[in-house]
Amino acid sequence: VSIYSKFAAGESSGGEFFDTVCFDKDVLILMASSKSYVASSAILGHFEDLRNSKTFDEQSFEKFITSLSYELKKFQNNEVQLTLITLDIHSMQVSGYNFGGATIWKKACALNVPNELELNPTFVEKAKIDFKISRGEQILIRSAGYARNLESTELERNEKWVEFLKSIENKSVYEKMSELFFKLKKDLTKDFLKTDASVIIIEAVSYT
């Protein structure tokens, strides 16, 4: 499995961040955003506990969501968006949860629907992600912040975004990343985007 990522900074308070951790059998991926640096610190602290546990099943993920949700309730301005998935590098099964506006794409098809779910164990069934990829395929994780930067552009319309993904489908990962972030920045008059934006591309490498 090969993992590629790119980030562009925005002007809004708080911010986006992500982490990917590779183990012998799994890849663990976190993509999150918050409006509070205290909330961001809490997310990273709980993620560190999860990665150190080296147990990435449904029970451990729900424990992570429950404990983080409890801590976030202590803070003001605690709104967060969070995607947490694991990829089994043998079966190529992807599973996890998405709370918020991030979307996952494969061959220009969305594998999940953005939502407005609160990070809360009550909503884990609605937030669940579960799909499989094949060797040689790629998935693209587009952050909620990336989507917000598309507002008021032609790519805000889903059909235009799909057309764009199809137009770069046969390009290299590096070319794709360049095109993805060129689209965000081409009409900017400032140095920064409206909000932070992140993209992760995961490639399930074919056996030779």
Series of secondary-structure elements, N-terminal to C-terminal = EEEHHEEEEHEEHHHE
Global Rg: 17 Å
Number of helices: 6
Unreliable stretches, pLDDT < 50, 5 or more residues? Answer: none
The global form is globular
The main β sheet shows up as: 5 strands, antiparallel
The secondary structure category is: alpha+beta
Helix content: 25-40%
| Mean pLDDT score | 92
How are strands sequenced across the largest beta sheet?
1-10-9-6-7
**CA(first)-CA(last) distance:** 13 Å
The number of E-state strands comes to: 10
Report the portion of residues in β strands: 25-35%
Question: Would you give an account of this structure?
Answer:
By secondary structure, this protein is of the alpha+beta class. The chain is built from six helices and ten strands. The strands form two sheets. It has a five-stranded antiparallel sheet. The protein has a five-stranded antiparallel sheet with strand order 2-3-4-5-8. It is globular, with a radius of gyration of 17 Å. 31% of the residues are buried. The mean pLDDT is 92.
Task: Please tag this protein with its features.
5-stranded antiparallel β-sheet; 31% helix; alpha+beta; 208 residues; single chain; 6 helices
